[in-house]
Structure formats: C-alpha cells, structure tokens
Specification:
Catalytic activity: NAD(+) + (deoxyribonucleotide)n-3'-hydroxyl + 5'-phospho-(deoxyribonucleotide)m = (deoxyribonucleotide)n+m + AMP + beta-nicotinamide D-nucleotide
CATH class of the largest domain: Alpha Beta
GO molecular function, one term: DNA ligase (NAD+) activity
Number of domains: 6
Helix content: 25-40%
Distance between the termini: 53 Å
Low-confidence stretches: none
Keywords: DNA damage, DNA repair, DNA replication, Ligase, Magnesium, Manganese, Metal-binding, NAD, Zinc
Enzyme class: ligase
Cofactor: Mg(2+); Mn(2+)
Mean pLDDT: 89
Bound molecules: 2-(butylsulfanyl)adenosine
Amino acid sequence: MAANDSAKKRIKALTKEIKEHNDRYYKKNQPTISDKEYDLLFKELAQLEEEYPEFASPNSPTKAVGSDLSNQFTKFKHQVPVLSLENTYNTEELWDWVVKTGEDELYSLEWKIDGASILLYYVDGVLENCVTRGTGGIGDVVTENVKTIKDLPHSLKSKRTVTVRGEIFMNFSDFDEFNEEYGGKFANPRNLSAGSIKHKDPAEAAKRPLRIFVYDAILGKGRKGIKEHKEILALLKEDKLPLAPDTEIVSAKQLLKSIESFRKKKDSMPFPVDGLVIKLNSLEKRETLGETSHSPRWARAFKFDAVLKETIIEDISFAIGRTGKVTPRAQVTPTSLAGTTVTYATLHNQDYIDQLGAGIGAKVLISKRGEIIPAVEKVVSPPKQVFQIPKQCPSCKTKLEKVDDSVDLFCTNRHCPEREKNSLIFYCEKKQMNIEGLGEKQIETFYQLGWVKDLVQLYKLHTKKKELIELEGFGEKKVEIILSGIEKSKEKDFRWTLPSIGLNEVGHKVTEVLIEHGLDSWAKLLELSKKKDAAEELSSIHGIGPRTVDALLKHLKDKETLALVKNLISLGVNFTAKETEKSDLQPFIGQSWCVTGSFENFQPREKALEIITRHGGRKVSSVSSKTSHLLYGPGAGSKLEKAEELGVTLVNEEEFLLLLKKEGIPF
Ligand code: IVH
C-alpha cells in the first residue's frame, strides 16, 4: 500500500514537472534543465507508468510530444501524428536497441539538427502549408514565414503530393552576425530560429538568416514500390529539397565506428547539432516495429553529452522572494558556455547543495540546457566546507524556517526589506494591478529613499510629487505617468485587488471562484469568517481546496492584513467586485466555454470568461463532452489535448477577438 501510494504521488509529481519543462522548452524557448536531466525524469516516469499503469494520466507526457502551439496562428490538423524520438546517451543503451531492432539491418545515421521542427505539406507539387509540430496532432500554420527561406522550393519538379519533415535552423556565423546587430539580445540559434518562424510579420521573418534541412517524407499513396529510407532521401534530393550533409547508411556493425567519427566532427559543424538520429533503413521493418504514441520504435536519438564547463564558485548569494522563499545562487568565475557568459548558477536549496557537496571555492562543472539557465552539475574539487544556508535571513536577520514539508527555507518576517520590495513589485506587475511606470528599478529607488515601503505608502506617493520630479532620471512626464497610474488603479475592482495584495493561496482563480459564489467583496469575506461554520461553507465551494480554506481564514483573522485592506479601502482602493451585468447581446447562449493557457489581451484569463458569461455563455472549469468551446492560448496543456480528442470547438485568442468584433461586443 505504502509503495503504491508513493508511486502514485511520484507519477503525479513527475507528470506535472515534465509538462512544465515541456512548456518552457517548446513554447517559451526557455528551458531550465539539461536534456539529460529531462530525460532522467522522463525515463523514471515511463518506468513507473509501466509498473503502475493504473496511476498513469491519460494525458501523460510520455504519451505525447511537447507542444509548441501559440495563439497567433491558424491551426492545422496533421495528417499523421508527428512523433518525437526516444533518447539514448551511451553506446551500450544504443546497442541494446540495435539488438532488439535487428543486427542484420541497415541503419541511417544522421545529424540531429538543433532547430525548430517543421512539416511541409506539398499538394501536387505545390507547397501549400508549412506547419509546426504543435501538439503532434495539431500544429501552427507558419507558411508565409517558412516560405521566406531561400533554399526551400515552393514547387516540386515531381509534382508529388507529399509531407516532408525537416528542421529550420541557423548557422552559428549567421546567428552571431544577426545577434550583434540586435545588441546580443538572442540567447542562441535554436531560440532565434523557433522564434523567427513564429514571428507575426513574415517580412521580419525574412530578415532572419533561416535555413532548412529535410530528413524524411510521408509519401502516402505515392509510396508504392519504395522500400527504403535511402530511396526517400534520394527522391527528396531529386526534388531539390535541401538534405542535411553527412547522412550515412551503415550496417549495425559499422554503426558505433561511424558514431565516433560523427562525434569527432561535431564541434566543427557550422550549425548546431544536439546529437545523431539513427533510423532503420527498411520501411517494411519499421512497420512491423510500429510506434508508441510518443515515438517510433524504429528510431533513436543519440545525444552527445551536454557541454560542461569548469569554473569556480566565488561566492554564494541569495534571492528572497515576496513569499520569503530564500534561493541560494552560486556566483562563479565568468565562463563562456555555449555562446554566453555565465556568471551565476542556481543552487536551489540546502538539499541540492548537500547532494552536490558545493561550497565557496569549489571547482565545479556547470552546464546549460538550451543555453539559458546554468546549473551546477558536479563538484570537481570540493570546497573547504560544504555551504550552509545561514540560519538567519541574509537581508533582515530573521530566523529562517521550513514551511510545511518544503525543502526550501523561508524568511517569515513580512517586513523583511527584500520581501517588502518584491511584494510591491508584484502588486504593480502587468498581471496584477498593472501600474504604468512602476517597475523593479523605480520601486527599488522609492524603497531606498524610504518613501514607499508598503502599499499604503504607494497610494500616498502623490504627496512627494515635487521631490519625485527632482529625482535623477524621473522628471515631470515620468512622474505624471506613475502618479496617474497609481490613481487609475483605484478603478480596478476586487477581481484584481484581492489577488494583487499577495495573500498566499489567493490568486486570480480562487478570487474568481469566490466572487462566483457571492463572496464578492472583502466585507463579505470578513462577515463569513466570523461565522462558526465558515470553514465548512468555504470547503463546500468547488475549486476551493482545504489548503485555501485554511489560508484564507488565517488571512481574515490576521491583524496586519485586516489593517492593510482597511487602509487601502480608506484611500479609495476598491475591494468590491463590480457587477458583471448581463448584456443585451447574448451570442454565447447555450454554449459552455472552458479557458486554458495565457493570453495577451486577457490577463488573467478569467477576464475572457467574464465576457463570455456576460454575453450568455456558461463557464466550465474542465473539458468534458459537455464543453462546447475551448479558448486556448500559449501554455495550454492537457485541456487542449482532451478538447481535441472530444471534438470541442477550439478557439484561439485571435479568433476570439474576431468573434467579439463580429458580434459587436465591446472589448
Ligand atoms: S526524425 C519519427 N531526424 O528532433 C521521426 N528528427 O526529438 C522523428 N530532428 O522533432 C524525427 N534532426 O525536429 C529526425 N535527422 C533528424 C532530425 C530530427 C533534428 C528533430 C526533429 C524532431 C526532434 C525529435
């Protein structure tokens, strides 16, 4: 029972974590862990799911490829599922696969190009659609952007109807040149390539030095008589489609030797490669082996180890978030790694530091996945002492504590300067009160001057108008923007003010649920908290879990929170939800809408639901056969996949805005 329980928990945690990493990699182009770390998590999940299939989520990341969908493009249903590859990291593992697959077979050995995956749909030889891999089932149509790539034929001599798979990438030298022009703001060629094919403006995409290599084709009816991958590559070549260089068709015996020569050549390649792909040459044999819903059994990626660089931990500093969480970061001797200079690497928490045995003076290996966030992978020569996070907050000296079961340490002093500053920054953020002109820099300045230490003082900042104008780097115009931004924030209602004051467990979603259940003002929440059965009443609300109930009741009894809200109300900040009066326009009547992902014009996304309900629609929090529409944006995960399976009408932000326009709904 205990083993079952822990397997269930671990499967759930891994599923969530891998999905988050997929989002960071495919949608945001900002991965935070190395490919190897990712694959370890992935393999652990796959193994656990095999052992305990009853706990596997139907939307498990092991059953699908990560999604790159974004809300700006027309969607396209792929004709056949676009699969990914299973990774191997060493020759033993690869050889095990070869033995299973066929020691007498021929294999295609190809570079694994590190760019953005693309499918080219040619109909009677005409390039009709260029589509990203998307969820593997549905992709984004990016035809106009892709057509700007010089070497890509828009029509085929053969007049064939064929789907070609390829990778869009950039040469290192082109990337460097382009990046220099833009002040070095792009992290690496992969990110720039992936971002460029998703650019809103094809004219802008045309300026990017994009290239393409193709590596496979789905011939459909035209496959008759074709028995080998080698032949497919030859057809692609005849049609003048650009094939990647160096591809070899080798016997199993030659395979490992050839891998070694590819490995030697890897660092002198003009374009980024993150490994090799090994595929069975025989198409017939491929069919007998088949595929899982994630990847074919007839191919493997062989990843070269991540680039590791040696450096030294010179110091360890801390970030203290608004919740008080303390994150240690290693300051390292500046080291160039995969094109950028690394100056720090996160050390996460004490457990992580202990596992590594890290400390000041240690010689360490650092690596980056997608060259974004560096990680300390290994300690090469140990420090004199393994680092211990101080017992006291580095900023305010309050004793640090572990909250609940977390591995992280927290500063519990809410007047800790770092916490106060970060709370103010949070309140002003776009996703919260969206106060123009007030970012990290300005808040830091006002905080240091002692003018704004809390939200109440923020609303009194206008009394310092004269001094503000005289501050270096401010001036009348800027000050006007800031002060009117603060004043304007008073127009925002409870939907915004409650989540923005940063009470733990009380974000936008919880606020929306509370309002929906008639708890649409601070006064009503206070009234409820005084009732004997407050906890039961709150618990009975769908969408409010036990942790939220506890936290909410605690906040409603907390003297400082009560005083803060009281003062804010007396300063004119609105802690009552405005009526969402029903409109005469009711185009959504009879429809049930679910919303997932993030949106440019609806932040938080509940704003979109508000419009839908005001105009006759019903909102639902999960996708089921009763859901008629799913409004989705970047970051959409399992809901999108489920909706796709159930045939729910999918609507992206652009389409939704058009719909509102068509119906004459003001936005
Ligand atoms: S074969 C079903 N061959 O790697 C076959 N993929 O991790 C799947 N990639 O999304 C792909 N070079 O975009 C294949 N020579 C190559 C490749 C290659 C790069 C990318 C591809 C895919 C990803 C899989």
